[in-house]
UniProtKB/TrEMBL annotation:
It comes from the Bacteria. This is Calpain family cysteine protease. Belongs to the peptidase C2 family. GO terms for molecular function: calcium-dependent cysteine-type endopeptidase activity. Residues 259-446 form the Calpain catalytic domain. Keywords: Hydrolase, Protease, Thiol protease. One of its GO terms (cellular component) is cytoplasm. Signal peptide: none annotated. One of its GO terms (biological process) is proteolysis. The active site is at C270, H423, N443. SMART domains: CysPc (SM00230).
Length: 481
C-alpha cells in the first residue's frame, strides 16, 4: 500500500516473512551450540564449567540437543509470534489508511496497534445504533433515562479500540451532548432519582482504556458528567490538582521491591497499603497479574466488590478500574498521596484505582486489613485478635500462603517509639524458633518512615508478648483461590 505515517507495510511484511522463515533454523543452531558446549565440558573434565552464562548452562546437560524445547531454543516460537504480530499490525495500519481516505478520523496513537483490523461496517452500524437507542428509557412508571446510555455502552464495548476511536471521533457535537446528558441522568420514579453510577464508571473504563490520547482528551472535556478522575481532596490536604507523572510500573529489575517502592503519602489509607504490601509480599506475581497496561498507556487494575449482602465466606466480584498516569499533586508538582520513588508507579496506580473504585481519595481514609485484602484479592478474609491467633498459628497461615496484617492500639508510640498507634502493618515473617518467638512487621510508610516526626523504622521486630500487647486486630486471607 506504500508509505503511510512513515511505514511501508509491504517491506515490513517482507521482513515478517523472513523472520518466520528463520525460525526453524534457530532450533538447529541451538542444537549445534549445545553439542559444542557438551564437548567442551567433557574436555574440561569438571575442572570448570564450559560456560558461566545462565542461558548457555541450560544447554550443557542436553543429551538430544536437536530436540531441546526450552530456552534459548524458544527463539523459534518467539520469531513466529513476533512475525504474526507484525503482520496484524500491518493489516491494522493499511485499514486505518483506507478509513482515513474515506473521511474517518482515527487517533494516530492507535495506527500500529496489535488488534483485529477495523471494519468500516462496524463503525457505521455503531453510529446508527447510537441514534436508534440513546433515547431509550425504562417506561412511564419507572423511567430510567440512563437506559439508552447503558444499551449504547454494551454495543460500543463490542468494538475494537480503533473502531471505538473512529466512532467517538465521528460523533457530532449534538450526539456528544445527548450522550453527556444521558449519562448524567439515571433511574427515576415519577421523575426523581440519581444518576446510575455503575453505568458512568463503565463508560469511563471503556473510553479511558481504549481511546487514543487525543480522542480521550476531547472526550474528557466534552463528557463532563463522567467521573474521569477520583475526587482528589481529603480532610488532610486541599488545593490539589492532577498532573501527569512519567514513570514505569516497576523498577529496573521488573520486580516488586516493597522497601523501595511503597511509601504512604498524606491519605489515611495505611490499611489499604498494608493490605497491598501483605498480598504482594506473599504472592510477588499478584500485582503483575492484576495490573494491565493498555495500548494507549493507561492502566486497568482488577479489584473486587464485596457481595451484597456481604456474607462471610463469599468471594467478591471482579471490577476492572482503568486510570491514567495523572496523580494528585501540590502547588510544587509533588505527588501528595502514594509517591513514585525512583519513578516506580505501581503503588500509586493501585491506590488511584482503589480511590476511583471507592468514590474518591477521601473515602479510603480509615479501615482495616480484612476489607483491604478482600477488595484486593476477592477472597474471604478473617478478622480476629492477637489473643485468638498465636504466632505459631500465624506462622502456619503464612506457610499456607496467607497474607496477614495487624492493627495497632492507640498511643503506641508512647510505649514503644518504634511503632505508631492506630496504624496497620503488614506481616513480613514469624520466627517461632526464636526465644521468645518474634514477628517482623512492615510499616506502609516505607521510605517516609525515617522522615516522620518522630522518625520510626520501616521494619520492626517484636516479641510474642509485645504482639499481644501492642496490637488489637489481625486480618488474613489467601491470595489465590
Amino acid at each position: 500500500m506504500g508509505d503511510f505515517h512513515g511505514f511501508d507495510t509491504a517491506k515490513i511484511r517482507t521482513m515478517a516473512g523472513d523472520m518466520k522463515n528463520a525460525g526453524p533454523g534457530a532450533r538447529t543452531l541451538h542444537g549445534e551450540l549445545a553439542s559444542v558446549l557438551r564437548d567442551a565440558q567433557a574436555l574440561l573434565k569438571g575442572a570448570q564449567p564450559a560456560s558461566k552464562s545462565p542461558v548457555l548452562e541450560a544447554l550443557i546437560p542436553q543429551v538430544l540437543p536437536l530436540l531441546y524445547a526450552g530456552l534459548p531454543a524458544s527463539l523459534h516460537a518467539e520469531l513466529d509470534t513476533t512475525a504474526d504480530s507484525i503482520r496484524r499490525r500491518c493489516a491494522q495500519l493499511d485499514r486505518v489508511h483506507t478509513l482515513e481516505e474515506q473521511g474517518y478520523s482515527i487517533d494516530p496513537g492507535l495506527d500500529f496497534d496489535d488488534e483485529k483490523a477495523p471494519d468500516k461496517k462496524n463503525i457505521d452500524d455503531a453510529l446508527a445504533y447510537f441514534d436508534d437507542h440513546i433515547d431509550d428509557s425504562g417506561g412511564f412508571l419507572w423511567e430510567n433515562s440512563a437506559q439508552g446510555a447503558k444499551e449504547v455502552l454494551k454495543r460500543f464495548s463490542s468494538l475494537t479500540p480503533t473502531e471505538l476511536d473512529a466512532v467517538m471521533s465521528r460523533m457530532s457535537v449534538d450526539q456528544l451532548k445527548k450522550l453527556n446528558a444521558q449519562v448524567g441522568e439515571g433511574s427515576t420514579f415519577w421523575g426523581a432519582g440519581d444518576s446510575d453510577g455503575t453505568v458512568k464508571a463503565q463508560w469511563v473504563n471503556l473510553l479511558t482504556s481504549e481511546l487514543g490520547p487525543t480522542t480521550l482528551a476531547r472526550m474528557q472535556s466534552t463528557l463532563t458528567h463522567l467521573p474521569w478522575q477520583p475526587n482528589l481532596h481529603t480532610d488532610y490536604v486541599k488545593n490539589l490538582k492532577y498532573q501527569a507523572i512519567d514513570g514505569t510500573l516497576y523498577g529496573p529489575s521488573g520486580d516488586i521491591d516493597l522497601p523501595k517502592d511503597m511509601s504512604q503519602g498524606d491519605d489515611g489509607d495505611c490499611w489499604f497499603l498494608a493490605s497491598l504490601a501483605a498480598v504482594s509480599a506473599r504472592d510477588p506475581g499478584f500485582v503483575r497479574d492484576h495490573i494491565k497496561v493498555n495500548p494507549n498507556g493507561t492502566y486497568t487494575v482488577t479489584l473486587y466488590r464485596a457481595p451484597v449482602p456481604n456474607i462471610d465466606g463469599l468471594t467478591g466480584q471482579p471490577v476492572e478500574v482503568t486510570v491514567d498516569n495523572q496523580l494528585p499533586v501540590d502547588h510544587s508538582g509533588k505527588p501528595v498521596y502514594a509517591p513514585t520513588p525512583d519513578n516506580v508507579m505501581w503503588v500509586a496506580i493501585y491506590e488511584k484505582a482503589y480511590a476511583q473504585f471507592s468514590g474518591g481519595y477521601q473515602n479510603i481514609s480509615g479501615g482495616l486489613g480484612d476489607q483491604g485484602m478482600h477488595e484486593i484479592t476477592g477472597l474471604p478474609t478473617t478478622l480476629t485478635t492477637p489473643g485468638s491467633m498465636s504466632l505459631a498459628d500465624m506462622n502456619q497461615k503464612i506457610k499456607e500462603g496467607h497474607a496477614v496484617t495487624v492493627d495497632s492500639v492507640p498511643h503506641l508510640n508512647s510505649v514503644d517509639d518504634r511503632l505508631v498507634g492506630e496504624h496497620e502493618y503488614s506481616v513480613q515473617s514469624v520466627n517461632t524458633e526464636a526465644h521468645p518467638p518474634t514477628i517482623t512487621l512492615f510499616n506502609p510508610w516505607g521510605r517516609n518512615s525515617e522522615k516522620m516526626n518522630p522518625p520510626v523504622p520501616a521494619t520492626v521486630t517484636v516479641t510474642e508478648s509485645q504482639y499481644q500487647q501492642y496490637f488489637r486486630e489481625v486480618s488474613s486471607t489467601k491470595t489465590r483461590a
